[in-house]
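User: Can you write out an input/output pair for a complex, sequences first and structure second?

Assistant: Here is one pair. Inputs:
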Amino acid sequence: MDGTNWNYSDKVKEHFFHPKNILDIDEKEYQADGVGYVGSPACGDMMKIFIKVRDDRIADMKWQTFGCASAIGSTSMLSVMVTRNGGMKLDDAWKITPEMIINELGGLPANKIHCSVLGDKALRQAIRDYLTKSGQEARIPKDDKSRVICNCLNITEDDIRMEVLEGVKDFNTLQERTKIGTVCGSCIDTAKTLVNFYVGKYYADEVYGGKEKKG
Amino acid sequence: MIYLDNSATTPLHPAVREKIIETLDLFGNPSSMHAPGRQVRALIEKSRREVADFFNCSPEEIIFTAGASEANNTILKSAISCCAFCNESRGHIITSNIEHPSVLNTLKCLEQQNVEVTRVKVNKGGIVDPAEVEAAIRPDTVLISVMYVNNEIGTIQPVEAIAALARKHGIPFHSDAVQAVGKIPIDLQKLPVDFLSMSGHKIYAPKGVGILFKRKGSKNICPLITGGHQERSLRAGTENTIGIIALGEAVRQAGLEMEENKKYIGALRDKLEKGIRKKLDHVVINGDPGKRIYNISNISFMNVEGESILLRLDMHGIAVSTGSACSTGSLEPSYVITALDVDPEIAHSSIRFSLGRETTEADIDATINAVYETVSFLRKMSPIR
């Protein structure tokens, strides 16, 4: 069995079988400048990324995962992408998308793409953590609504905002439409708060909401 | 290659393989009156007698199908079809929440047609409580269907007790016995089931052939495939002659080997579990340990994800299966393991090892080592400690 019938590219297999940049020492010993953490074991996917920053570049990145082959392959690839050629600038690393990682990997089976979207999110969390810790909060993009609320289903704050704009007025409707919080459920409280926040923002005002009141 | 996925499918038994080769050129249509037809007819009826002998039933009670999924569909869909149960216009079916998809998804389809379904929940050990089945019975219950052995965790259901209580209430009882046949002796003179499904390729026969047992005097069934008079008009279409002949041989061999297989494979399964537990902490064996079929071991390796284990074992040349969501292409892990009322992590971390008659002691030794290496490697990169 040499795996020739898998739907994974050779590059994914290479990174899956020989993952690069795994954190294999104690977290404290590593002394990361920023740590990012997304997902939960209940969703079957969890990712933790540690970065070291020098001269505003990612000097080193290490990671750990509870995840499947494509999660492992794509995060290993990501770690290579951000650390090669002297390290990627933070601003550029912030903009890495799953598509960029998937392209570097030579593609992923369509039903496995959701497993590959945790790496870039965890990396942004790590950068956010570094910027916060180093007193550079001002550099965190102000309109950053890309914060993921439901890790299991990859639903961002902006997705929730858009749902509210499209007429969602309460959490139950949001859940019906997006299935948010139906896998591990850990995001439900945050999601409820956000729905209320955006409903308040858009519908409390007659200009936004017409005659309909929030409820 | 070390093949530990015998609950998914089995290799051909050497005797079955021989039989297939002998049969390959017998192309006659068993419905034909002439000699080539009669020759094949005789072999099919011989196969039917083998099966009937094996189950201690009458040959007329055996209907050959394309597999257990077809047999299950036939019985479940008969519950609402034109000719059979609906005469009494009752529409409630009782089943369990860990049945094979060929039962669960067929019932979902029937629910769209106004059939009501009660899915009795298994306990933490993965066992259906007959008392709960009985409590679910309603005046309009037309069928009870509970599997004999679960395909993912190997738990053996109290089918005798459920069959007996179904009979007491006058309700037809069906059991999907795919994972039990050839492993647990089934005497249909004693076991009061009305219908039973089985599959050839789980007992070392080829894919594409199975059996529906329909007890004489039980309620009529409505054929899923109508057409010619084959299988007493209960399953139209020219017979899968080679498959049926092969299945007869597989069943005969199962009868001969059943006791020995149980001892031999059971010992290897226990060795596997013992070896893994000795080398690794934080492993959970899924399913009531005292009520499992002897060839299945479903183990969760905490803090690591199932698909990763599967693929790395595959790299070692070891074939297993997993209940992790990633293997299904959905976000939901195995519904069977989830039904055990455990944390979802347990399902995401689960691996099913299913042994067969060709498994050797050396296979098990190599598997224990490969599992240890794989799980240790993946745990080192896990953020969960």
